[in-house]
User: Fold these one by one.
Assistant:
Number 1:
Amino acid sequence: MSTANTTSKSNQSASLHVKIKPQISCPHCWHEFQTDKILFISESPDLLGDSKLGDAEQLRFLPYRFGVGGEAFDAHGVACHKLACPNCHLQIPRPLLHMSSFFISIVGAPAAGKSYFFTSMVWQLRKTMTRDFCMNFTDADPTLNKRIRDYEMKQFMGGDAPDVPVAIEKTDIQGDIYNNTFIDGHLTSLAQPFSFTISPLPSYPFPQHASNVTQAVCMYDNAGESFLPGADNVSQPVTRHLATSDAILFLFDPTQDLRFKNTCREIVNDPQMNPALGGDVRRSKVNQSSVLTEMITRIRTHSHTPPHEKIKTPIIIVLTKYDAWHQLVNFPHYNNPWQQAKNYKTSVYNISYVNEYSQILRELLLELIPDLVGTAEANAEKVTYIAVSATGTAPEVGQPDKDGKRPLLYQPANIKPVWVEVPFFHAQTLAGKYCVPVVKS
Ligand SMILES: Nc1nc2c(ncn2[C@@H]2O[C@H](COP(=O)(O)OP(=O)(O)OP(=O)(O)O)[C@@H](O)[C@H]2O)c(=O)[nH]1
Ligand SMILES: [Mg+2]
Ligand SMILES: [Zn+2]
C-alpha cells in the first residue's frame, strides 16, 4: 500500500516534534521498558491472534514502518495507532509515552467504600480541576476507562431512569475488569488500570510551569478481597501496583468498626450504623487494621524495603462515609481546602488546613483504634488522615430483590460528595507532583 511507503525518515522528523520518554512503566504489569521496544496493535481485521492474549485479540507487533503522525503500519499496510506493552501485550494509553506519570492505589477492605469514592473523586476532579484550577482532567483513553464512565453516569446521572435509585455493584474478584495474559509462561490475571491526563487550559496563569504540571495519572480500584492475606499470588498479582505507586489511599470505613459505632451517641439514619433500619449491609469479615498490615507487608516485599526502613510512599488514611459518623469530630467547618488566589485566576490548595484536620482525626483514631495509627506511622514516613464522604448522605434501603435481599440504594440527585478530591491533591503534593498550586499556610 502506498501509505506504507512513508519511510522511517519522515517518522524521525515527526518524532523530533513530539517528546517521547525514553523509558516507561506498564500500568498493567508494571514492567519498565525502553519505549523503542513498545509494540503496536494491528488494525487489519485479518491479523487476528496474539501469542499472549489469545486468538480473539489483534496481533501485537514491533513496527518498522511509520507515518508522519506516529502511526505504524502492520503487515497488511493498515495504519495502527494503539500501543501495547512488550511484556504483557496489553494496551497502553498513548499519553503515558509523552507525559510524566503518577500512579495511585486505592486500598481497603470489602465494602469500605472504594468504588463509590473512586467514582466521586473522578467525577469531582473533572469539574474542580477545570472550574477552580484552570486544568483539564480527562480520560487518557475513553475506551479503557469505560467502567469508570459507566459508574459516573449511574451514580450522578441515574441509570435507566433519573428517578430510579441506583447502586454501584460490588467489585468482583474475577470477570471483565481483569485481563488474562501470559507472563513468563504463566497465565496471569491483571487488574484493569484507569488512566487520565492532567493538562493546563489556555487560562492557566503559570504557563512557565505547564510542562511540569502536565501528567498522566493511573489509578486502580480492586475488590477488597484482593487485599486480604494470601489473595495476591503469581497467577493473580492484582495488587502489585502497591509497590510502584507514587501514593496510596488506604480507605478505612468507620461504619464497619464497632468502636466507632458504639461511640456515636446520636442515632444515625444509615443502615450501616443502625441495624434497626434493615437492608443488606455488606461487611468485611476481617479487621481493617489487618488489611493495613497486609498492605504494608506487600509493599515491603515487592519494593524490597527492609523492616528497619520506613516506606517512602505517602500513605493517606482516608476515613470514608464521613456523613455517617461526623458527630465524632468537631471540625470548625468543612469547606473545601482551596481558595481563590489573590492575584491569579486560579485557586490554591491549602496544605496546612488539611494537616490541621488530619491531626484532629489522628486524635480520634488514637482514642478508638490506636493500632491503626501505630501500624501506619511505624511503617511509613508520611501518613495523613482525611475524612471524606463519597455520597454526602446515607443510602436508603430498597425493596427486596428476587433473593429477598434489600439493597442499599441512592437517588443520584441526592449525592453530594464531600472532600473527595482532597486525598488526590494531598497525595500529589506529598509526592512532589503539584498538579495544583499549593500554599503552606
Ligand atoms: N453513608 C455512606 N455510605 C457509603 C458511602 N460510600 C459508599 N457507601 C456504602 O458503602 C457500601 C460499599 O461501597 P463500595 O464502594 O461498593 O465498597 P468497595 O470498597 O468498593 O467494596 P468492594 O468492591 O467489595 O471491595 C455501599 O453499600 C454504599 O452504599 C458514603 O460516602 N456514605
Ligand atoms: Mg468496589
Ligand atoms: Zn505490561
Number 2:
Amino acid sequence: MEAGGLAVLLTGVGKRYDIVSAFARHAFVVAADPNPLAPAQYAADVRVAPPAMDDPDYVPFLERVAREHDVRAVVPLTDLDIEILARSGLPAFVPEPDVAGATFDKYEAHELLLRHGLPSPPTVLPGEDPGRYPVVVKPRRGSGARSIHPAADREQMEFFIGYADEPVMVQRLLSGPHFSIDLLCDMEGRCLNAIPRTMLESRGGESIKGTVVADAELVELGRRVGEALPVRGPCTVQVFRDPELGIGIYDVNTRFGGAFPAPMYAAPPGRTYPELIVRMAAGERVEPHVGEFTAGMTFTRWYWHTELDEQIRPTGRDAVEGGPRPPR
Ligand SMILES: Nc1ncnc2c1ncn2[C@@H]1O[C@H](COP(=O)(O)OP(=O)(O)O)[C@@H](O)[C@H]1O
Ligand SMILES: [Mg+2]
C-alpha cells in the first residue's frame, strides 16, 4: 500500500465498487453504508454501519470511526451527506457548507452559477413565466433523473407543476450534444484537472457510455466552475451544447460522477483522482495540471455481482471466468 497506508473513509458507498476499489489500491479504506449487503463494501478494508444521515449521531459516529482508524480524508459518494460533512470538523473533501447547500438545490445552483457569470439556462420558479417553450419541469432537490418532465407549452408545464408533490423549477429544455466534465479541486479550491466526456447514453441521470474528449472549451469551463464556487474535492458538471444558447450547465454535483471510470482511464499515470486525494490527505501540495489527460478513451458500464455465503462473505466464485475480452 502506498502513502504509508493512510486511511480514507468513504460514505454512502452503495454500489460504487469501482470508486472503493480505486481508493483501496492507494489507502486503507473504511466504507460506511448502513446496508449489510452494500456491494461496494467488498472492495474496502473495513465496513461500518452508520446511523441514518439525518440522525444526530451520524457525525459523532463518523468521528469515532475516524479516530479509531486515524482517517485523514473523508469522501462522500452520494449527494445526501455532502452538506452534513461540510458542517462537520471531519477532514472531508467537500465544499464550504453554503456551496454544498446551493449545489444540492438546483434552483440555488442556477443562481450561484449566474452570480459567477457561468452559463446556466433560463430557469424560473412555478408562477413565473418561462418566456419560451419547451421547458423541463424538474425537482429542485432531485437525483437519479427522477421526475424530470419536458413540457412543450404552458398547459403541459402547469400540469407537471401541479402533479409534483415537491418543490420544482422550470428550465429551458436544452438540446444538442450532451457532456459531463469531471474535475478535482484541492482544499484551496484550485482546480487540479478537468476531464470532459460525451454522454453517449445515460440512465438514471448517469452516463453509462461515453468517450473522453479533448474539448478545450469544456476543460476551461470545468476549471472555471471549480474555482468560482469553489469546489473542494471531486465535482461533475453536466452540460448541453445547445445550438441556440451555446453551453448550458444544468447540473453540478460536488462528488464523483456516475461515470467514474472515464477520468480514471484518461488521467495521467499516478494522477488519477483517488491517488491525488490520498496524496493531498498525506499533506502533499499537488500542482494543477488542467487539460493533461488522454482523450479518445471510451467506457461502457455494466452490472456485476458478488456471490456471498451464509455469513454474507464473498465466496470468490464468479459466473464468468477471466472478465471482458474482444469478441471472437
Ligand atoms: N434543462 C434541461 N434540458 C434538457 N434535458 C435536461 C435538462 N435538465 C435535465 N435534463 C435531462 O435530465 C437528466 C437528469 O437531469 P439532472 O438535472 O442532472 O437531474 P438529476 O440530478 O436528477 O440527475 C439529464 O441527464 C438530462 O438528460
Ligand atoms: Mg445530474
